[in-house]
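Handout, section B. The chain below has 427 residues.
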Amino acid sequence: MAEPANTAPIPANPDVVVIGAGAAGIGAAHRLIKEGKSVVVLEAANRVGGRAWTQTDSFGVPVDMGASWVSGADNNPFTKVALKNGFHLQEHTHAPTDLFRLDGSRADAQDHADYVKDGKAIQKAMNKAARKGRDVPAADVVPTDLPWGGAQQSWLGPMDYGVDFDQISTMDDWHGESDQPSYFVEEGLGAVIATKAAGLPIQLNTVVSHIDWSGEGVRIETNQGTVQAKACIITVSTGVLAAGSIQFTPELPHAKMEAVHNLPMGLLVKVPMMFDGARLGLGVNHWVTYQVPNDMPAKACYFIAWPCGQDYLFGNIGGQLGWDLSQEDSQVTVDFALEEMVKLVGSDARKHFIKGFRTDWANDPLSLGAYAAVKPGHHGVRKILEAPVGDRLFFAGEAMGGGYSALVSGAYKSGKRAARKLCKAID
């Protein structure tokens, strides 16, 4: 994975400090530099990218630990970055679905048609509520008698939003933009993000503990010393803000912290599992979905099979089930995912299985979740969170991604917006 080349000491007094070298911080830094500002990006981890991270250590091939798709590719800045830098994209917009019935048997053509129809019915019900201005939990308005309703809700809720259907805001969903077309990156989406960070003034392994904005500028305390600047852009997750990992003097306004708590982190746990080359009857890049009871939330793990032709597939477990399993040993999660696969393809899954692991965003102190989801009844909270404080503190990140929230493209664009606001404030 490409890392930024600059490893210079932290400047004592840049114009701007950006906290976090994920997509939002990278976007902010590029815009600030373009505006002629001196800037340093402080990153607590030993790598860039935040929750967009490609690693090769586990399987010897690229595995995206977090963000996996170039989503909404026609309006995604990383599409151009990937193509310009020689990355290989594989279309995933119309990927087929390997669909299984409740008893584990293969679905037929009518089942596939019903599955698609039920998904449309659920979305239609959510849209109808939002059009009427009803910002209510999605679970309150969707049909409950659809044969494939549980499967559709499990994808759209836990595995898309990171929360169960009773925690999805109908209004927030309504205001989201399409995430299609979408592409896989053979070399990993995290590697694309890291490429965009190359050459930026990023200081790794630098943990911010305190931001004093009581004076004219900001004074930022870290484990590597104190930095003073005219202003800062904060791109850490709402989970980190809610946990109080960074102290503020004075404290952040009540409305800001209320916004943080009304945008809590959801969770998607990915379970990459390597096999010996056997395809188990599943197609390359296929979605693997099975029918579940409509009593939500379901105990489900849905899969992406053999991404980009690699010999691994990854399970997706979200919402409360993801949080619960994240409190257990990683092997418990792998065992659960493998047994779900066995139910679908038989014991050959065990025979050909080599090894697996679980992503652990729930317990990562630098994220404390996967991405933020608006609590029902609090639509508009993303803008409150994004609003600057005292013309010195600016906020960005996937939680403030507008119609592309929870996506790296939304995070990147929010960073650029924050940078533009900051430049107007300090010029």
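Note. The CA atoms of residues 241 and 260 lie 7 Å apart. Compare this with the example in section A.
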